[in-house]
Amino acid sequence: xxxxxxxxxxxxxxxxxxxxxxxxxxxxxxxxxxxxxxxxxxxxxxxxxxxxxxxxxxxxxxxxxxxxxxxxxxxxxxxxxxxxxxxxxxxxxxxxxxxxxxxxxxxxxxxxxxxxxxxxxxxxxxxxxxxxxxxxxxxxxxxxxxxxxxxxxxxxxxxxxxxxxxxxxxxxxxxxxxxxxxxxxxxxxxxxxxxxxxx
Length: 199
Prior knowledge:
By secondary structure, the chain is α/β, with parallel strands linked by helices. The protein has helices at 14-17, 42-50, 91-95, 101-112, 116-133, 155-160, 170-198, and strands at residues 8-11, 32-34, 59-64, 138-142, 152-153, 162-165.
């Protein structure tokens, strides 16, 4: 266990959703409560933060997704018991399912209706609101190549170590775990120092 932290909240998407022994989320030195789900859009992540009692946790990690993943209540390309049945839509996923009636409609929407600038603006607003809503110490991460204030970009690790565990191999997950542990240590130390100075 790292210092006095006993409850670390993780909310994100597939880059943090895997809870097997080789996942970076399971190799942190803090007990984790992981509510990440495959295929979550930024809106779904934001809603999960809004509906979580943050006071129950000592620290949080929010793993932000691509602005191009669009919220939908259910993904009809998958059966109800599938791990992606509640995933949100991203163009590359639906193109890979071409020929499925739902995927074909979704491809048409992406190619004829979707506006990238709008999606990026809404994404930045949601990320910014996430940072103001969370009152406990919090790390903000992304595995997409995004340049967002106060969000640590781990895209190079994913690109260097692709695989099937959180989209990375074991080495990539180990590197992420060590990096995140170091950031947790720094954030914890900073929050303790600020608490002492404010007393």
